[in-house]
Design goal:
Layout (H helix, E strand, L loop, with lengths): L3 H16 L9 H10 L2 H16 L6 H13 L6 H33 L11 H13 L1 H5 L1 H14 L2 H14 L3 H11 L4 H13 L6 H10 L6 H13 L5 H29 L1 H25 L8 H24 L11 H4 L9 E5 L2 E6 L1 H16 L1 H8 L3 E6 L2 E6 L3 H5 L2 E2 L4 E2 L9 E3 L4 H7 L1 H47 L4 H11 L4 H14 L5 H6 L5 H4 L3 H14 L3 H75 L3 H16 L4 H28 L3 H39 L1
Antiparallel strand pairs: 1-2, 3-4, 3-5, 6-7
Helix pairs in contact: 2-11, 3-5, 4-8, 5-6, 9-10, 9-13, 9-14, 9-27, 9-28, 10-11, 11-12, 13-14, 14-28, 15-16, 15-28, 16-30, 18-22, 21-30, 22-23, 22-28, 22-30, 22-31, 23-24, 27-28, 28-29, 28-30, 28-31, 30-31
Amino acid sequence: MPSVDDLKKKYVDRIKTGLGEEHVQLSSRQYREFKEQYMPKHMSLYEKVCNLSERVLSLKPDPATSEKLTEALRVSHVSTTPSGVYAFSILFPLVLIILVSLLCFIGPILIASALGAEAPAAYGSLFVLLFGVIVGLGIIIPLQKFPFYLANNWRMRASNQMVLCVFYVVTYMRHTSNLELAIDFAGEHLGPPLSLDMKKILWDIETDKYDSMKESLDIYLETWKEWNPEFIESMHLIEGSLLEGSEARRLEMLDKSLHVMLEETYEKMLHYAHNLKSPLTALHMLGVILPILGLVILPLMVNFIEGVKWFHMAIVYNLALPGLVYVLAKSILSTRPTGYGNTDITEVNPALKRYKTFNLTIRGKDIVRVSPAVLSSIILFGMLLVAFFPLEYHYANQEYDWVFIDGALLETRVDSDLYKEAAFFFLDYRPKNPSDPLSDRTNGPYGIGAILMSLLIPLGLGVSIGIYYFSRARNVIKIRDETKELEQEFASALFQLGNRLGDGIPAEIAFAKVADVLEDTKTGEFFDIVTTNITKLGMSVDDALFDRERGAILFYPSSIIESSMKVLSESSKKGPLIASQALINVSEYIKQMHRVDERLKDLMSDVISSMKSQIAFLTPVIAGIVIGITSMIASLLGKISAKLTELGGSTGDLSAAGGAGAIFEVFGAGGIPTFHFQAIVGIYVVQITYILTIMVNGIENGADSLAEESQLGVNLLRSPALYVIISAVTIVMFGFIAGNLVRI
């Protein structure tokens, strides 16, 4: 008679044969709901497009690749198949190439032909088409490997929580030797994504995918075999403590598991810091030094190449270079080992998400909450509207410009004597054909006023994005900083509270006594709230700590503090001595983690200090000076070209006029207008600031999205503003020099 296992295997094999092994996914309704709540939206979108692509195009990778992709998709909790991944990697580049061809090459040619324009091929950009084809073909392999990127990103975010995970499991198992309850305890207090993994371990048992807790946990740990062996070693020590007959030996193994995790974390981070020098140098050269040096010679170099337009430079500087730097930065971050990182407290406590808004206050009270996205969009739209005024004005009044004469700004026709004698122009649109002064003035703007107004493009972009992140992170990061201050004091407070409980004092009185000792500290404030809830509101200790409306935890949303108080609540049921010992041990664990955290910060400070200086000072200052020099060169060459052309025409030597125009067409009368040049450089400054900020935060804090938003908010407000100030000063200063030189 066949056993239950034989029957189970028989029917599972039959299901796999009918549906395909990659479609067999056992999960519970609770797991799916939990996953939908905490999975990032971009990963859900990726699932949908891959599943849709699989229905359109049927592609199957080889078995070895399929197995690796299945594992990566399982690790990142993405519900699609290797076939869907491969189908999407072909369909998306194909659609991209077709769209680029229609929008940038075939479409413009057809429109120009329909309008009867001469040389319609000139309206289609072969460069853009070639770039689109190269990008489309180039992203096929990365899209096929995208699940591995998702898995690595998931591992990075999860590994940032592993020290806390071991801490929660060990803390719980010291007073209750039950692995299932300890894993559940860790899952409740961790934030995503590791909390999702902990829940999945338990749900795999509930759905009978695995027969025991040990089997489910061991199979999950296998996914970290190549990535985080210290986590596996720590969890195996925890499992081994269940088999110890001696209580002292059991506690010793639990302590050893946390010690192993902390020490191995420090050693791996030490090696990582030593190996960062070479890739960071490459990132610095590729993302900052070479592009900025290129800006010095680019304005002159591009003019030797016929047909080069501003959007060609924009594709290189605002698409290709940032893309390469971003990929390099992500590859460096993907090798970062486990760290003792922070999490976004709004993921642990969703009620705090209401603070991720911009609050307009009157008389100290919130009047209205404004979405940061709405506020940023209004700012960006307003600044861009002003920035593009030179283009708007020229389109409406092509025969007019403003000139600066004796400190006054005067409007005049471009063919007037006043315009020809002026040294400073607001718009400065130049003839399309430099050898023919009467040709349409469509080349520009080059004027000092236009380039100053163009500074609002990078400023608006930086300020709008910066305000978006700053508004989202400002209130929440303030709460977390106060909570972290409390966490730093909390170890000694727990030790004192444990001693009071060890003296036989009830918890209700122990909280009040410790609060008196720790007066005027964050910990004292926390214990005061607990005492007030007990004495004035008549709450129990549990309610005073965890009540949904008045609990002390609401004011200090820390997983470490909450878990410590949960340990107090659970262990106090076994007597005050057990509770006392539990709190003393928790305080020691917190001290150990804090020591390692400080060592890691010291280790990383030297590595990231140069990158912070690049973000805050070097990149915006160098780029600003380059813009000032470029505007001066363009102004000088343009004015000299016009003077020589006019001189040749007045002497009747038209060939000389044509020769002068041709010479200065090469050296700057044509080429990229300074308005467009500055906009491209300014946008690149914003982009490189964004990428380097993500890089610095990733090295320093790991996958800490809240710290990333806070740093982005500060840096994107500061660096573009510094760039705009430096650019404006150099433009005015060099423009004055150029104007005086022309008069001479």
